[in-house]
C-alpha cells in the first residue's frame, strides 16, 4: 500500500518514487476512451497534486488493478493518466471509467460499498469505523511480524540494507509504533465521544464493556512504548531477551485488539443502524468523528491508508469525498502540503 499526502519516506517510495519523477506531458483534451483492454504489464503514468483526494483515489484504483504505476506529482489540479500514446485528463469519473475500460479485471465495484454485510443503508460512521479497524489490525499484525523478526535476529542487522543499522531499525520501529498508537488513541476517543453517547442515549449501559476495554488498552500500549524505548538505548546484539519479550507483548496485544474490534463490530455497530437515525444525522456523526480524528486524517493519513487494501482505501476516500465537510477536508489537506 502506499502514500497519499505525507512526506514519510517509506510509504511514499512505494507508490511515488521521487527518483522517477518526470515533467508532466502537455495536457490534451480527453480522447474518446479506447475500448481495447490494456495489458496490466503496461506502465501507467498518473500526474496530479500529491495532496489531493482525487489523485489518491485514482492511485489506489490503479494499484487495485495491479498495473505498473508511476505517479508524478504535478501542480495541475486536474489529474492526467498517460498510457502508451494515450493521454486522458478530466474529472475523477472520466478517469475512473477510463481505468475500468482499460483494465477490466479485477473490477473496482466503486458504485456502492461492497464490504462484507454492508449496503447503501449502512451508516457512514459504521463504514468508517470498520475500515479503521481493518487498518489498525493490519498495522498491529505488521508490528508482530516485525518484532518477531527482530527477536529472531537477536538485534542483528536486517538482510535488507535499506533498513540501516540495528539502532536505525529500532528507531523506525518506534516511529511506526508511535503512529499506530496515535491512530488507536484517536480512534478510541472518537468512539467514546461520538459513537458511545449516541448508543447510550437509546439503551443505557450498551457500551460499558467496550469502554472498559478501551481503559485496559491504553496501559498496554504505553507499556509497549516503554519496552521499545528501553530496547532503543541498549547496545545492539545484546537485547535478544528484551526483543522476545516485546514480540510476545505484541502478540497478546494483537489478540486483545482483535477480540475487541470483533466485539464492537458484532455487538455495537449494528445498533447504530437499528437506532434509525436519518441520513443527515449519519453525515453529522461522520463529520464529528473526523473532527475528533484530525491528526489521523492529516499527519498520519498515509499510515491509515497504508493498512488498507486498495479497494478499501478507495472506499475510505470515497466516504470523505462524498460526505465529508468540504472545509474540514480542506483543512486536513492543507496541513499536509509539502513545503520544500
Ligand atoms: Fe473501535
From TrEMBL:
**Organism from which the protein derives:** Arabis alpina
- Which Gene3D superfamilies does the record cross-reference, listed alphabetically? nmb1532 protein domain like
In Swiss-Prot or TrEMBL terms, this protein is called Hemerythrin-like domain-containing protein
What the entry lists under InterPro entries is as follows: Hemerythrin-like
- Which PANTHER family does the entry mention? OS01G0861700 PROTEIN
Q: Domain Hemerythrin-like: where?
A: 125-272
